[in-house]
Write a structure and sequence with these properties.
This is DUF222 domain-containing protein. This protein is α+β, with helices and mostly antiparallel strands. The protein is built from 6 helices and 5 strands.
């Protein structure tokens, strides 16, 4: 995998973390899976390609996460990952729907946890690894 695609895959692995409670059946399973992802993301600092390969196996091991990752990585050949960073919004009769950029928030300690803010009223909360407020990127 190219360096660019490895970086994109690692970014997708960061973005799936806040989605795990909704994807997996139990909070305990989501927490355990999140710990495994976080450990591999930590390893990516020294060995990005090795961590990517292990994350690919881990994230492909469950149908729910494999499906999420397929959707997140589907547009790699078409440039930036728009589906995660933009949302189409429009009002009938006032023209076509236009992409509305979402703000990305990351952990200020190590960047291993990220979320997109779909609406300004949504509180981004704390990084589960360091218990610090997420910051806009």
């Amino acid at each position: 995998m190219s360096d660019e695609n490895t970086n994109r895959f690692l970014d997708a692995a960061r973005r799936i973390r806040p989605e795990l409670p909704g994807l997996l059946k139990s909070a305990a399973a989501a927490a355990a899976y999140d710990r495994d992802i976080e450990a591999l993301l930590q390893r990516s600092v020294d060995d990005p390609e090795g961590a990517r390969a292990r994350l690919q196996v881990l994230l492909g091991s469950r149908p729910e996460t494999a499906r999420w990752m397929r959707r997140a990585t589907a547009s790699w050949g078409a440039g930036p990952l728009r589906p995660q960073g933009f949302e189409e919004r429009g009002i009938d009769g006032l023209g076509p729907a236009m992409p509305v950029p979402r703000r990305k928030f990351v952990c200020p300690v190590d960047g291993k946890y990220s979320r997109f803010q779909r609406d300004a009223s949504i509180d981004m909360g704390l990084c589960p690894d360091h218990q610090v407020a997420l910051v806009a990127e």
